[in-house]
Amino acid sequence: MTKPRPTRRSRANQHADGHVTTGGAGPAATGQSGADLTVTEVDREFLVKVRQAGLWEIPAGRLAQTNASNEAVKRAGTT
Fold it and tell me: Is the pTM for the entire model greater than 0.70?
């Protein structure tokens, strides 16, 4: 049985005690020796803001595709 591909949400999992595991990214990708990463409050705020930015990106692109009168804006909405 094959494992399902990790989604963007499951690649970095923040746990209740504040540490993060990186599911799909191994130690070489994180620069760590296999240890969990501790997340500071500044890191947590940054991760939340990045996630929020990603949440509006897809709906905004769809709106641009359907409602824009400028073809360049419509094309930008597809990327």
Answer: no
